[in-house]
Amino acid sequence: MTDKEKRIVSGMRSTGKLHLGHYFGVLTNWVKLQNQYDSFFFIADWHALTTKYNDTANLKEYVKDVALDWLASGIDPDKSTIYLQSLVPETSELHIYLSMITPQNWVERDPTLKDMTKILRTQGATDNSITYGLLGYPVLMTADIITFNADFVPVGVDQVAHIEISRDIIRRFNNIYKVEYFKEPKPLLTDIPLLKGIDGNKMGKSFNNDIKISDDEETTEKKIKQCITDRNRMRRDDKGNPENCEVAYQYWKIFGTEEEIKEIEQGCKSASLGCADCKKCLARKVNEFLAPMREKRMEYAKNPETVHEILIEGSKKARVEARKVLDGAKEAIGMYF
Ligand code: TRP
Ligand code: SF4
Hints:
The chain has 337 residues and is mostly helical. It has helices spanning 20-33, 45-52, 59-73, 90-101, 104-109, 111-122, 132-135, 137-146, 160-176, 217-225, 248-255, 258-270, 275-302, 304-333; strands at 7-13, 38-44, 80-84, 152-154, 186-188. The strands form two sheets. The protein has a three-stranded parallel beta sheet with strand order 1-2-3. It has a two-stranded parallel sheet with strand order 4-5. α11 (248-255) packs across α13 (275-302). It is elongated, with a radius of gyration of 22 Å. The model has no long low-confidence stretch (mean pLDDT 95). Iron/sulfur cluster (SF4) is lined by residues 229-230, 233, 240, 242, 245, 248-249, 264, 268, 273, 275, 278-279.
């Protein structure tokens, strides 16, 4: 069923190359949803600045990387509007209006933001490195969402608390200005369970446990070899239990066919299959899976003008919609214009 009248919007921060956690947690969902909804996907380079304001040397490279990873994953510029957040300044204007009406304690209570600042502090951040802009993170997200008056926001579970605040801010806007102008957006989640990193923790770039969409085959194999297995299986001739195999078997369940999974299970339980061989096969499966994406990524990487054009054109298109929404918001507030 298509519902092209309904809008979705979502973004990702440009902080580096994307990994399989992004792919399975978010991107596959976007690829599906773009057939169904009027879709806006943006690279959140302002949000990247909330924590990386003094580390901008790679910012442009990161924007390109995210664009390439999206295109490689199947986000289609003919189906979706792909744009760069900072090229749609209407969002920043909406952000100002929202910042005026958002109670300070709402942003201070944002659990996702609290987690972010905690992590930053463990990485050496001091009071002076936690900025006003970072505190406004959920407000800027709300501005992103209302830029298109979106109905749904397809995100990973980690973003849901932010979206809750967005709904509160939007409701408050409508209440204060006595309008029914902005819709309260709902999160759209995937039912795919969280993909673990090779060490068994949540996959994340900064945890050094991720497999990137753009990794080459050798790197992928090396990483898969490091995957946690059944910790009780110490020696080659010990019998294993796939259910206790923390990472490798979980990956098999994603990348293997039903038949292959059965075979692995039997080999593991009977000890006819050793972990090293098991992971070698797995690496091949993962590489096979990623091969077409990597090829597509390489093609786009060879044509940087095409990628640039996609972002520029997408941003132009986004601005047309954003302008209309912004004018309506100014009207609702009572601005002179
Ligand atoms: N905070 C999101 C992330 O870290 C990125 C993001 C910014 C976003 N603005 C948004 C997601 C608006 C959805 C809607 O991945
Ligand atoms: Fe895991 Fe495979 Fe080793 Fe079994 S054989 S514990 S499934 S890596």
